[in-house]
Amino acid sequence: FGTSGSARSMHSAPRLVTRPFLAMLARWRFAPTNFRQPRVELKFAPEPEIAVPPAESPDALLVESERCASVMSVNTIGTFLAVAKREGRLRRRRISAPMLAIGGVLTVGGGLFFVLSILLPILGVARMLSPFAMLGACSAALGAQLLLLALLPEDTYLVPLVIFVCYWMYMLFFLIFCAITAVSLMGVFDVTGAPAWFRYSTSAWQGLTAISYIVVACRHRGAWHADKSPRAMLADAWLTLGFWYLSCVLVMEFAALPRLAFDSMWKSSVEFVVLQMLSFEFAVLGALARWPEFRMRMQARLASRGEGISAAAGISALIGQASVESLLEVWEKRFCGVDMDKVTREAMASNMPDPLLGALSRSVNFGAVDVFLSHSWHDDVATKWEAVQHWRSDFVAQFGREPVAWIDKYCIDQESIEDSLMCLPLFLCGCQKLVIFYGPTYPSRLWCVVELFVALQMGKGIHDIELYELPSSRPCDEFDAVHAQCFDPKDREKMMTLIEAGCGRIEVFNDRVREVLKQCQDAKARRTRQKQRGSGLSLLRHKITEEEFN
């Protein structure tokens, strides 16, 4: 009002300068791109052609929009899988790289130092070098545990290879100590002024050391030949290493007693001090190796260095070495759903596979399956079937059609179960909702809980999960993955590997699952209250309308 044109131009000049800058700043600030992650460029196979109805059909627009959503969803999930594999590789580098470097130097250097300190006196090149041999053994023992920390449960080929190498390494040390025992009996290691029985006591503890090596080698050979998962083999390797450490402690203390019996001054020597330090170190390392959670805690600490690894690394452990393109190809061939009117109570009563049920399912597009049905096969079939039919009737009343569900017994290819289970993240993302029938045995079945965990890691929210509690269901606070089981023990080892990769520790996974189940229960209660309020309001409106009409 009343401002001249020149004054208006002066006031608007700063705006002309600052507006483009503010617009650029807003675009950079609110852009959805995450600049921390590298750009992932993927090449996917073209989507299969979908028969679109004629334009006159009312379903034409629905099918076309479903096809566009399918293309976008597949690309998004493919990108997420690529990021998950990158997270898995980053986790491996953070754990394995430093342990391999430090453990390799300590093991190789300490082993060479130990062998040279033993062989040089035998060959007459140098005098007895017992303290240096003990220091070499101390370094090699610590390095061996660090090298074992570099192994991950998902190392399918590396774990058996390392156990095979350890077997032959222990066999080599067994032969070395057998030779040392024989040379000791000939008097090479005699101590000046020692009685005759000291020679035999020295040979005795050296022979016991050789026996400990052959026992450990036999345990490694048993773990190597047994049909075990890499995680179980790795657990056996840790227990075996702990047994060897503790047996060495007993041998070293047994070796020190005869020397102290005739030479009381030896207690103040460097050799005795180094021996006690070595014995203490072996006792600590043995106790840590026998502690079941030591490996998981250490690897979780190593993986959390710097910027934390996301739980998507667990998805990387589930899909293994398969590429994203091959996963999408397998998904395209095997993603299917079954109409709920074809599901029978007899089929839901047993978890035994039935290849004939696969003929009732049909191939569907990404996002065309209404629900991923998660339940425990060990729950009471009558109670569970009643809950399923109640949910089905509500769905039909709301949408006017039968729901399409993904049920493992109907939708998994029984001739290639491994490939189908590897695509579990894609199957979960291809379904619009996850419906859980939470019965008394649901928390005790590890597969059921892992389905919930994978769904959350693949982007599902609490609003995408519906939980129906069956009678006599257990409180969610009682869930513990340690006590959860699978039908196949190998599947349980695979699930525990996924949990370790995604959460680091079992306790963290337990807390997350309990929290999610509690949130699902609260969300179900809120929906029930809203539905009851909606029914009450509709009855009130109907009553008012009748009174106005009268």
Structural features, described:
By secondary structure, the protein is mainly alpha-helical. 65% of the residues lie in helices and 5% in strands. The chain has a six-stranded mixed sheet with strand order 2-1-4-3-5-6, sandwiched between helices. Helix 2 crosses helix 9 (312-319) and helix 3 (130-149) runs parallel beside helix 7 (270-290). The longest helix is centred in the first third of the chain and has 64 residues, at 60-123. The two termini are 61 Å apart. Residues 1-72 have low confidence and may be disordered.
Main sheet record = 6 strands, mixed
**Any idea what the radius of gyration is?**
33 Å
Head-to-tail CA distance between termini? 61 Å
User: Could you tell me the number of beta strands?
Assistant: 6
Derived structural class: mainly alpha
Uncertain runs are 1-72
H and E string: HHHHHHHHHHEHEEHEHHHEHEHH
Query: How many helical elements?
Result: 18
Shape: elongated
As a percent range, the share of strand residues is 5-15%
Helix residue percentage? 55-70%
Biggest sheet: strand arrangement: 2-1-4-3-5-6
Mean pLDDT: 76
